[in-house]
Amino acid sequence: MGLLSFAIWLPILSGVALLAFGRDRNAPLVRWLALLAALASFAVTLPLIGGFDNATAAMQFVERADWIERFNVHYHLGIDGLSMWFIPLTAFITLIVVISAWEVITDRVNQYMGAFLILSGLMVGVFAALDGLLFYVFFEATLIPMYLIIGVWGGPRRVYAAFKFFLYTLAGSLLMLVALIFLYYKSGGSFDILTWHKLPLGISAQSYLFFAFFVAFAVKVPMWPVHTWLPDAHVEAPTGGSVVLAAIMLKLGCYGFLRFSLPIVPDASHKWAGFVIALSLVAVVYIGFVALVQQDMKKLVAYSSIVHMGFVTFGFFIFNELGVSGGLVQMISHGFVSAAMFLCIGVLYDRVHSREIAAYGGVVNTMPKFATFAVLFAMANCGLPGTAGFVGEWMVILGAVKTNFWLGLIAATTLIFGAAYTLWMVKRVYFGAVANDHVRALADLGAREFGMLALLAAAVLAMGLYPKPFTDAMHVSVDNLLKHVVVSKLPAP
After folding, report:
1. For the purposes of burial, counting CB atoms within 10 Å of the CB of 437, is it exposed (0-12), middle (13-18) or buried (19 or more)?
2. What is the largest CA-CA distance in the chain?
3. Which of 23, 33, 210, 369 has a 20 to 30 A CA-CA distance from 475?
4. pLDDT one-digit tens code per residue, 115-140
5. pTM higher than 0.85, yes or no?
6. 469: how many CB neighbours lie within 10 A of its CB?
7. Which helix (H) or strand (E) holds 79?
């Protein structure tokens, strides 16, 4: 077993082991064991950063073993600059989620912690898989723990939200399975994703494959108009569920475009790029207006996530280095910022048991430490220079202007809408006079809450002030991808 296998199976096996502690009287022990497992899982990913070679686009930390020999299916893992940073990000967010649930979750603690650890390993598997069938197994398996997290520990309409989440994402993925089987036979019986990148496919076959992949990944992102499951899932999910859903799970769809759509069907990607760009810009503008009228803080941040993911897909399909790299940076920064935003909402909900903006006002007067963190994360969500939220958006806008000035201008409106709906929420929740007795009775952050928000604040500022480690790691892989996409793969007549 190599580092990638440890990053996948350590949290999965730890999560399964926690299920043996079946009674909540064991909850204190379960919390400590979950924390140790999350810390170990994160520590395993750190050598991936230190040992990663930025100068090559080749797959690194490769592991390969026979799995289903009869069908030439392999347990094949590896990472490049497109996937490397998402593995430590996944482990880091899982660690934060375990800390955030320390005092909040009191029912079925072992199952809650186990579900998140198992989910963490499965998501790492998606980013590391280089075999098509292995990718599909990990991609679909992530639905099960998240379905349980929403359905068991969610809000009053949790069953409805869990079913909607599961059905939307499962239905979209079925077409991807058909595409994988087609590529398997077309390649002479191989599920190797890197082999599929070299297949000479006609434009008709590419178009069919493009839309099969597009449906699966667009639902997962989610892109407009197949986004309606996300606000419901976020509102009903527990805080940890919302954090992982926004910070990591949405990125699985975006990553799929880079690993499958662009390199396997480059001509169809060029042909239908305008369609994807149009849907992405609708998300940026229309969903921005939708976010402006939300009264529930979780719904507002959920719609904000749709806007940011629209920005990512827009960057990918303008086919230049700034756009694709900016989309990747945006995915990573959104992981930090969205996690922090949902955790801040969770801190308030744990005290007042309301997510309605109208239930608050003047929180800075009673929770000054918390309000400092919350406003910082809100500024990052707006794309304030010096924070992680700015870097990716700015790169995508520059890439868009390089391609077409008017596309860049429309995309830049996200900065205006983002500032509008985020600052409107900040003004009503945090500033002004104390609005009611609930706010007057609020207690500021405890040591545990302060620690988890401080970790995220450090990540947001570090990435915003010095993004070079992130862009350096992805630069060569992005260039290699774009060279591959630009060269037509249509067979000679």
Report:
1. exposed
2. 76
3. 210
4. 999 999 999 999 999 999 999 999 99
5. yes
6. 13
7. strand 73-79
Tokens (6 digits) for 175: 């077409």
Residue located via tokens 């995508």: 396
8-state DSSP, 351 = H
Question: 29 pLDDT exceeds 50?
Answer: yes
Contact 321, 479 (CB under 8 A): yes
Nearest to 350, CA basis, from 106, 141, 21, 176: 106
CA atoms of 33 and 17, how far apart (whole Å): 10
For residues 106, 108, 113, 114, the Cα torsion angle rounded to the nearest 10 degrees is 170
Per-residue confidence at 103, pLDDT binned at 50, 70, 90?
confident
Instruction: Single out the residue of 266, 312, 256 nearest to residue 482, CA to CA.
Output: 266
Residue 379 confidence class, pLDDT cut points 50, 70, 90: very high
Q: In 10 A of CB 225, how many CB atoms?
A: 11
pLDDT at 489 over 50: no
pLDDT score for 14: 93
Which value, to the nearest 10 degrees, does the dihedral of the CA atoms of residues 147, 225, 276, 291 take? -90
Contact 255, 83 (CB under 8 A): yes
